[in-house]
Every structure is written in structure tokens, then in C-alpha cells.
Design brief:
This protein is an all-alpha fold. The chain has helices spanning 5-25, 34-75, 83-96. The chain has three helices and no strands. Helix 1 (5-25) runs antiparallel to helix 2 and helix 2 (34-75) runs antiparallel to helix 3.
């Protein structure tokens, strides 16, 4: 099964965090130039911030989805108490519990 975007972002974030630690604190054991280290650190910090941003976006999408479902509940609140309304409300409320 293909991983979700959230799983991919979390994996990238973890990788960047591990690599950031490696390149920040292993100044004597890694046989690399200081410029190379700076380039890696810059890229890793950027990727860490980028993944954080998109993980927050993913949370906002969930909130926006639930807001839209809630709006539908309010929109149909004027309907008479019928089987149709109960079916509509039961289904919409089920999704809000996810």
C-alpha cells in the first residue's frame, strides 16, 4: 500500500533530523569540507521547516473538512424532522467522529 502524504512527510522530517544531528556534531569524524557541511546543514534545515509547514497544512485540511461538514449540518437544520433528515444527520455526524 502506498504511504500517505503525512507518513512521507514524517519520514522525511525524521531523516532530516537525524542527518542534521550527524552533520552538526560530527565535526571531526566526517571527512568533508566545511563548505559541504554548511550546504548540507542549510538544505536539511530548509527541508525540516518545509516538512513542518506541510504537516501543519495537513492538520488544517482535516479541520476545514470538519468545518464544511458542520456547515452542512447547520444548512439542513431547517428541515422538518423526517427520515431523510435523520439519515442525513446520522451520516454527517458519523464522519465528524473520525
Amino acid at each position: 500500500m502506498k504511504p500517505t502524504s503525512k507518513e512521507v512527510l514524517e519520514k522525511i522530517s525524521k531523516h532530516c533530523s537525524n542527518q542534521l544531528t550527524l552533520y552538526k556534531f560530527n565535526t571531526t569524524t566526517l571527512q568533508i569540507s566545511e563548505k559541504y557541511r554548511e550546504g548540507r546543514l542549510t538544505a536539511l534545515e530548509y527541508l525540516g521547516e518545509l516538512t513542518y509547514y506541510y504537516l501543519q497544512e495537513e492538520k488544517r485540511i482535516q479541520e476545514q473538512f470538519k468545518d464544511q461538514v458542520t456547515k452542512q449540518l447547520k444548512l439542513h437544520s431547517y428541515l422538518d424532522d423526517t427520515e431523510y433528515k435523520r439519515g442525513l444527520y446520522d451520516t454527517l455526524n458519523e464522519v465528524l467522529d473520525f
